[in-house]
Write a structure and sequence with these properties.
alpha/beta; six-stranded parallel β-sheet; 7 helices; 6 strands; 42% helix; disordered N terminus; binds farnesyl diphosphate
Length: 248
């Protein structure tokens, strides 16, 4: 699935023209989209959910294995409370209202991020969605919620340090594989392609570990305006890239 193996990078090399199996998206620009319409920011996030529904279908049609989306970062807690409440409400709505359709379409749902800070209602909704869809294999939709790449690396480091202290692991045994096992994404492939909408060219703490060899595609299109053709353009751009994973 395009996972990067440090000792055998050739094995996973994506040839020119090959499709990405794992696509991740930083869905940026909802606020600007709303502002241009003299509407509150949450209006843009709402439109963003519509764009997401369409892209989930595109990903299924393209036989993408994993679609990872950045829905709420550990830094988004700094936003005004009404926007935070709105984003939480949208996650609940999305999981509740779309679960049946997603399940019917063979989508497996996973939520990635810190559980601390999320209330019991949202935690049980997440657990229910993950449990109900766990055997689906058409597409895995990973929703990064209360997620931060640095937080994920810190949490993994603490878990490993605890095991070192208890004697379960020796310091010399800590390698990339050991580290990977302690990440939220343990056992899952890394993104082949990361798309960011709305013009900024940075990762903003998204998949800091997993993006080591991802191809990055940036587009000016604001997320609510991101359509099938934009997804296709990003994939076509990816297919032109020559991936070497540090080799020649
Ligand atoms: C960034 O745009 C977007 C977010 C912080 C949230 C993205 C969330 C959604 C698309 C909807 C939620 C989806 C689910 C499944 C819960 P921004 O607000 O930073 O835009 P701006 O840079 O134009 O202000």
């Amino acid at each position: 699935m395009g996972r990067i193996e440090p000792d055998d990078s050739k094995k996973n090399e994506t040839c020119e023209g090959e499709m990405p199996s794992h696509v991740a998206i930083i869905m940026d620009g909802n606020g600007r989209w709303a502002k241009a319409r003299h509407m509150p920011r949450i209006f843009g996030h709402n439109a963003g959910v519509e764009a997401l529904r369409n892209i989930v279908h595109c990903a299924i049609n393209y036989n993408i294995e994993i679609l990872t989306i950045y829905a709420f970062s550990t830094e988004n807690w700094r936003r005004p409370q009404d926007e935070i409440d709105g984003l939480f409400a949208l996650l609940k709505q999305f999981v509740r209202n779309d679960l049946t359709t997603l399940h019917k379409n063979g989508v497996r749902i996973r939520i990635q991020g810190r559980r601390e800070g999320l209330n019991n209602e949202i935690l049980s909704l997440i657990d229910e969605a993950e449990e109900k869809t766990k055997n689906n294999n058409k597409l895995t939709l990973v929703i990064c919620f209360n997620y931060g790449g640095q937080a994920e690396i810190l949490d993994a480091t603490k878990a490993i340090a605890t095991k070192v202290l208890s004697g379960e692991i020796k310091v010399d045994e800590i390698d990339i594989e050991t580290f990977e096992k302690h990440l939220n994404s343990a056992g899952w492939s890394h993104p082949d392609l990361i798309i960011r909408t709305a013009g900024e060219q940075r990762l903003s703490n998204f998949l800091m570990w997993q993006s080591a060899y991802s191809e990055l595609v940036f587009t000016q299109v604001l997320w609510p305006d991101f359509e099938t053709k934009d997804f296709e353009m990003a994939i076509n751009e990816f297919k032109k890239r020559k991936r070497r994973f540090g080799g020649i």
